[in-house]
Write a structure and sequence with these properties.
Elements lengths: L12 H13 L2 H13 L4 E3 H7 L15 H14 L4 H9 L6 H4 L66 H10 L7 H9 L3 H4 L10 H18 L13 H12 L3 E3 L1
Antiparallel strand pairs: 1-2
Helix pairs in contact: 4-5, 7-8, 8-10
Length: 265
């Protein structure tokens, strides 16, 4: 029998606790605070491989499918995309899509949910803040904990067809890396940025919620995010990868789109 992914019926207490804290503490105010702090903090130049190797010790507390450090999953995704001859930019996105989890090391703040111990503002399925949280979300029984006053209205703070880019999605590694990329010179296409920013928004790309917020660009990009989801999810296994054997190929790939192996974070 093939492995069933995203099965939350018999998960560790740490997984459930992470989602409970996220539902309670991910609010409009928290998002605005995280954006403000991101914009104010000084950016530093970091070698790409140094950033990747940090994730050698990062285990995602929200993931019911894998117990290996995050870096192995990233290479599993990228290698499958490479095997399937996906576009080179798509292979790179598969490699770096979880790189935003490095925020745990940069900020290391338990109170804000961005640390090795507390990850409720770093990992797990995301949702749009300031409006009703759909019951198709993981652990919907925690929805009542959210304190945003607009949570009973499907539109909340937004207008119909406003576009996902004009909504506030709960802060996590997606939003962190998306904003990091905006601060860097690169030649990744718009599709790549959509994948980076919204790949944890399962409510949108898998459960088909939030269609009332979609504009034409969202509808166009949704197919790419769904395609990426296959490489993100169905390549997971608890089998480690020899990263050193892959360094040359992915160094060349990263440099192709970023011009060097340096990244401003």
């Amino acid at each position: 029998m093939s492995k069933q992914f995203r099965d939350y019926t018999n998960v560790n207490d740490s997984v459930k606790e992470n989602y409970m804290e996220a539902r309670k503490k991910q609010t409009v105010l928290h998002y605005q605070t995280m954006v403000s702090e991101f914009n104010k903090r000084p950016k530093i130049s970091c070698n790409f491989w140094h950033a990747m190797e940090k994730l050698n010790s990062f285990v995602d507390l929200s993931d019911p499918d894998m117990s290996l450090p995050n870096i192995h999953h990233m290479f599993q995704s990228a290698e499958e995309a490479r095997k399937q001859n996906e576009p080179r930019w798509f292979q790179l996105v598969c490699l770096i899509h979880d790189l935003g989890k490095i925020q745990a090391y940069i900020d290391n703040n338990d109170e804000k949910g961005v640390s090795m111990k507390k990850q409720w503002s770093l990992v797990g399925d995301t949702f749009i803040l300031g409006c009703k949280i759909p019951n198709t979300i993981v652990f919907p029984e925690f929805n009542y904990l959210n304190s945003d006053p607009e949570k009973k209205n499907i539109y909340g703070l937004y207008k119909p067809e406003c576009g996902l880019n004009d909504t506030m999605v709960s802060w996590g590694h997606d939003e962190f890396l998306y904003r990091v990329l905006l601060d860097n010179n690169h030649s990744l296409p718009e599709e790549a940025l959509y994948i980076i920013r919204f790949h944890s928004l399962y409510l949108w790309h898998t459960e088909n919620e939030y269609s009332h917020f979609e504009n034409e660009k969202d509808k166009e990009m949704k197919g790419w995010v769904k395609k990426f989801n296959k490489y993100d999810l169905y390549t997971k296994c608890d089998k480690s990868i020899d990263v050193n054997q892959l360094r040359s190929y992915y160094s060349e790939l990263f440099t192709e789109f970023f011009g060097s192996l340096n990244l401003m974070i």
